[in-house]
Amino acid sequence: MFSRYHSTSKKLSTLFHRNRVISFEPIAPALQAHFSTDIVGDEPILVRDFVHSALYHPKHGYFSQKSRSVGVLERSIKFNQLEGRKAYMNHLDKIYKQSDISWFTPVELFKPWYAHGIAEAILRTANLSFPLKIYEIGGGSGTCAKGIMDYIMLNAPERVYNSMSYTSVEISPSLAETQKQTVGEVRSHLSKFRVQCRDAADRSGWGNGEQQPCWVIMLEVLDNLPHDLVYSENQISPWKEVWVEKQHERKILSELYKPLEDPLIKRCLEIVELDNKQSVSMARSVWSKKLLQVLHEALPKMSLIASDFSFLPDVSVPGERAPLVSTKKDGRSSDYNSYLEAKGDADIFFPTDFWLLERMDHYCSGWLKPHEEKSSKRGKKRRTLMLDTSSFMEEFGLPTKTRTKDGYNPLLDDFKNTKFYLSVPTHNIK
């Protein structure tokens, strides 16, 4: 969830009108009309549903497109052969211009070393008396899966590799196929790897779940989860949930504010103990809550590794924890000023408040309860750890592999706005 209120800044107060409805003129009217018909019909929809469709619509969603969202490097970057930062940036610029894709994930840019660091963290923590079971949510091109399986094959006891299973839960059919091809480059991986093309936040897709210890990996997943938007006119006005509607006579989209009624939004606000007296910065993505709740129900003994943006610079969309909405055309990237301008042609990604992520994780595991609940039932307390990317890789990875000749290390030096979150169950519930 991201949130807005009038008195945050002068910039915000100039954008909100007295009727509290904002209209966004289309950048390309024909394209706007096409996608608004698919995403927003005759009835208004919640912001989370709009974002979900803009990103994951089977035909028009950003991640459903075959060739422009997630990049795949033909070969690993030889960092040790680069002179320094300038040489690295020139190399990266050349790759982007040749690829005509929007972005490369860190696991792709630093393959195989990024995935190897994650694999080492798993091996140090996992109870290897059980078969190693790994689930990856949103596996992208399959680079992480292949890198982890490669590392376990080469560094773990043979029985661990032979008995392991790796399941990718991927909502994009095109990316699911790419993952199979990537992992299949090592023949022995194929019998241990499978892709389930479905929405990980849909509880029914998990069936009876997994009752044994397992690992869940989410890399750059939280930032692309659909978020809701709540709005307050000022610090003392009640929160309202935001809907998106289509104004037929003008063929544009606008925001509509309604009293809080959606149970998911209300429940999320309860979890973070947000009321009219508290800071707007307490608001949080209800979709993150939904996904975590599903995972804890289906995989009650899971351990979790998540990596994502802790903040985003130069965001032009107004609001606390507002998203960056970025598109790429003819090799050039540009940002939209509103999430409503993204209709399948742009990535929409949000910063993650890791303190609130921990709170959600503890709540969804059954340990942390809202203060108003009287139930004494408590699930297993979880041991959690938050590390910035450089600290994580220095502890579990091989940072010398991503260092240039002059000592510059893009993995350690350039990802100051990303963090890792590790969460494992423990029987200590006191």
Automatic annotation (TrEMBL):
The keyword Transferase belongs to this UniProt entry's keyword annotation: yes
GO cellular component, one term: mitochondrion
GO MF annotation: an example: protein-arginine omega-N symmetric methyltransferase activity
E.C. numbers: 2.1.1.320
Keyword entries, A-Z: Methyltransferase, Mitochondrion, Transferase
Gene Ontology BP annotations: methylation
Reaction it catalyzes: L-arginyl-[protein] + 2 S-adenosyl-L-methionine = N(omega),N(omega)'-dimethyl-L-arginyl-[protein] + 2 S-adenosyl-L-homocysteine + 2 H(+)
Main location: mitochondrion
Pfam families, A to Z: Methyltransf_28
Localization of this protein: Mitochondrion
Entry similarity comment: Belongs to the NDUFAF7 family.
Function: Arginine methyltransferase involved in the assembly or stability of mitochondrial NADH:ubiquinone oxidoreductase complex (complex I).
Name this protein carries in UniProt: Protein arginine methyltransferase NDUFAF7
Organism: Turnera subulata
